[in-house]
Design brief:
27% helix
Amino acid sequence: MEQRTSWRDRTVLDLGCGTGFHLPRFAEAAARVVGVEPHPALQRLAGRRTRRLPNVSVLLGTAQEVPLPDSSVDVVHARWAYFFGPGCEPGLAELERVVRRGGTALVIDNDGSRSTFGAWFRRGYPPPRPP
């Protein structure tokens, strides 16, 4: 991600932040970090993980309805959070709405066919298509 854009002194949105694993890393350099998570239990865990980080907030929301004002985000990170294909248009429209002009949206689709995380993923889901 750092090869694509810097989040130093910027506002970062981690869309579908889950338990907030990435939030502390963003908080090291970003001016503000917002995690948005649709599942209340995961949102609470992310809030606990970051409770001592004053520049981080974690909100309940979805990719289709991001609870942030227009043009309020410089960098969006979405990893395993939003699967693209037919029906993804509302989430893409929300990205367009919340990202400031000149901002960056990084949608990262991990390779579920290898790695430790991939092995966990394969146990719970059908085999992924080859990358």
